[in-house]
Specification:
The protein contains eight helices and twelve strands. By secondary structure, it is α/β, with parallel strands linked by helices. It has a single domain, classed as PAC-like subunit (Rossmann fold), CATH 3.40.50.10900. The strands form two sheets. It has a ten-stranded mixed beta sheet, sandwiched between helices. The protein has a two-stranded antiparallel sheet with strand order 5-6. Helix 5 packs antiparallel against helix 6. The longest helix has 19 residues.
């Protein structure tokens, strides 16, 4: 039996224990596929099961921007339409909350209705806490521990982030309409949190193991999750590859030294949490990132 909630079809209404939701929003804050990589990692680790999708995704998405994809299944050509995905995983009841995973796409239209639909699902499944995960480029070097910033609505949620090493964010500027979920969830009795990892601006990677590991470390603190040795090994190997690339690129070495200076001032509380760079410096970072990403993979 399927259930329809505000334009979303669920395959079942599972009985979940004290469920909490982990969400990502592509493509707005999923730089280097870090946030989506974290959710996929957790689904594999915990045995996530798909629960539901939008019934008519075209009501929210422009398919000239999110392109459908042709694929073959048992020799038959089919079309895969871009959509959100909701899945869940059960854990040890009475010890850790069950988890809901929300792979969201940023809506191009009817944004308020999209937000209402997600909130309706959270309410139906009795979600206690909603945590948005993300990744963005920032003026940070790969040679320092990656910084995670964010915020929370709710005293207990604020303490959770603080305990996980998430620093308060002072960001002001453009955002996604889907962030309304974080703003409105507390009105329904759902604690709201967000945690965004800062990634080096000079690294454009398909698989950013350093970024994934940093967010997994935050979640391990909040949810008592293990940190797999292979994930640590991949991140360490990626860092070594980047260090080797640094040795043969003196111009990049100068950039990293400057970013280390910004970073250390920020950690000491002597500089702003977000560093404004000159347009010339940003252009230089873009230029050297074109081939460095391939070398660091």
């Amino acid at each position: 039996m399927t259930y329809r909630i505000e334009g979303i079809e669920l395959e079942e209404l599972p009985e979940l224990w004290e469920p909490e939701a982990l969400a990502i929003i592509k493509p707005w804050i999923d730089v280097n596929n870090v946030a989506s990589g974290v959710l996929s990692h957790l689904e594999g680790l915990l045995g996530g099961r798909e629960l539901g999708r939008l019934i008519r995704p075209g009501e929210f998405f422009d398919f000239t921007r999110y392109r459908p994809r042709i694929y073959f299944e048992e020799g038959v050509r089919k079309v895969q339409i871009p959509n959100i995905k909701i899945s869940f995983a059960r854990r040890n009841e009475g010890e850790w909350p069950d988890l809901l995973f929300l792979h969201l796409l940023e809506p191009h239209m009817a944004g308020e209705a999209f937000v209402d639909a997600i909130l309706a699902v959270l309410k139906e499944l009795k979600v206690k806490r909603y945590l948005l995960l993300g990744s963005m480029f920032d003026a940070v070097p790969h040679t320092r521990p990656l910084l995670v910033s964010g915020g929370a609505i709710g005293a207990e949620a604020e303490q959770l982030l603080k305990g996980a090493g998430v620093e308060p964010s002072d960001y002001e500027g453009p955002t996604t309409i889907a962030f309304l979920i974080n703003q409105l969830a507390p009105e329904m009795g759902i604690e709201s949190l967000w945690a965004i990892v800062s990634l080096p601006m000079y690294l454009q990677l398909e698989e950013d193991h350093l970024g994934v590991l940093r967010l997994v470390e935050v979640l391990a603190s909040i949810y008592g999750l293990p940190i797999p040795e292979e994930l640590v090994a991949r991140a360490e190997e990626q860092r070594r590859n980047l260090d080797r690339a640094l040795e043969v690129k003196p111009e990049l070495e100068e950039v990293v030294a400057k970013l280390e200076e910004f970073y250390d001032e920020r950690v000491r509380g002597e500089g702003p949490r977000s560093q404004r760079l000159s347009p010339e410096f940003e252009q230089f970072l873009r230029e050297i990132s074109r081939d460095l990403g391939r070398e660091g993979e």
